[in-house]
Amino acid sequence: MKRLISLILTLCVILGLCAAPASALTDLPTLKAESAILIDLRSGDVLFEKDADSLRYPASTTKMVTAILAIEKLSMDDVITADATVASTGGSRLGLKNGDQMTVKDALYAMLIGSANDCASLLAKAMAGSDLAFAEMMNQKLLEIGTTSTHFVNPHGLHDDDHYTTARDLAIIASYCMQNEIFADIVSRESYDATVNSGGSSSVKTVETTNLLLNDEKNVNRIYVYNNLRYCKYDGCIGVKTGNTSEAGACLIAAAERDNTRLLCVALKSESMDRFADCIKMLDWGFENYKTVHAVSAGTDCGEIKVRKGEFNKVGTVSQSDYFYTIPVEGSEEIISKEIKLQDSVKAPVAKGTAVGTIEVYESGNKIGSVPVVTAGDINEGGFLSNFGVEDATAKKILTTILVIIILLILALAGYIIFLRWQMKKKKAAKAARLKAKKEDEARRRAMWDKERGEK
């Protein structure tokens, strides 16, 4: 279920990239980044974009894919060992040496929070044996989640001319990754203490996030957002990942949540500090102009439908997933309406999660989307009486009643037979008694007659 919901949300992002909602109130943000995009992370609606389909180098934003594959394929407590190849990885590093060991969890946190390239290679080696083999795994995953213009050749994002993506694809990747609770928790953290075992001894290495929207508590990193000089930390920021190489420029994927509206933006080929200003501009503009409506909640009761030839003749139904929609911030949620449409019936056997209808969502009477309605439980095929609409429980009661009646009839018949035999025995005994009495009476009369004859 969890995988189906992920695919549905990813599809929403892909479809949403075609057209943004109605124009907002304030002027569009002006950015230093050469490519950018802003989406509603829940609905997938694209709110703003700038050259979002041009091929760009992703730098360390690549590590999102490495992370989600590690989360999906490895155990967090597994211990993995660095080799010489891992130890020689360039760029931002944790400083692993040949033979060093750490858990998957610590490597994952160090990679996403501290952007450690050697930890990315360490995880790739654990999953595929080499960076090259892992790249094939990455590209397969990218196809699965719906990217169309991305090709990766390494797990960390160090420059390679054949390692590229687009702002639109990175929005799709980030949306997919942020649905995973482990990933979302890691990228929201400001720091982490990673333990490295080396030569029989262990040491703790603290990594701090490179995302200044999350971690600028000391107020030392000031930037201009339009004409306002401010600090980088952004209220409601929940992640996600930075990147920076000379070829890619400064990159940032950032997400923030306010009042149940969750936005995500991508800025590519910007400048070191301007990327933070770019994302602040996009997020501010998004929150100023749009809000998310939670039109349908997953698991909403949608009533019952008839089941033919089942152990039960009805089954409950629920909405399969959430449905979110983006509307202008001043818009009323009352413009959103819903209509449940169910099949008349379904034939047993029925598996839980079987699609039996939809909840159609409308904005001002115009259909904007739908959510599948599925069965809330399993219904097995019923017995013979289910052909006549009788549930197995009722059929069992009927059969039990019939059985009891049959037993009572048998007992009554047995009792009646016993009674008849007793009556016959009684009659036979009475007849025997009468015959005996008659014989005795005849014997007395004969004795009296013989006596009378003797006296004469």
Task: Please describe what this structure looks like.
The protein is of the alpha+beta class and about 450 residues long. It has 3 domains: about 290 residues, 3-Layer(aba) Sandwich (Beta-lactamase), CATH 3.40.710; about 90 residues, D-Ala-D-Ala carboxypeptidase, C-terminal domain (Peptidoglycan synthesis regulatory factor (PBP3), Domain 2), CATH 2.60.410.10; about 60 residues. About 35% of the residues lie in helices and about 30% in strands. It has 10 helices and 19 strands. The strands form 6 sheets. The chain has a 6-stranded mixed sheet with strand order 16-18-19-14-13-17, with no helix packed on it. Strands 2-1-11-10-9 form a 5-stranded antiparallel sheet, sandwiched between helices. Strands 3-4 form a two-stranded antiparallel ribbon. α1 packs antiparallel against α7. It is elongated, with a radius of gyration of 40 Å. The N terminus is likely disordered.
Give the CATH class of the largest domain.
Answer: Alpha Beta
Oligomer: single chain
Order of helical and strand elements: HEEHEHEHHHHHEEEEEEEHEEEEEEEEH
Weakly predicted, low-confidence segments? 1-24
CATH topology of the largest domain: Beta-lactamase
Outline, from the CA principal axes?
A: elongated
Largest sheet: 6 strands, mixed
- How many domains in all? 3
Classification by helices and strands: alpha+beta
Q: N- to C-terminal separation?
A: 122 Å
Sheet with the most strands: spatial strand order: 16-18-19-14-13-17
Average pLDDT value?
90
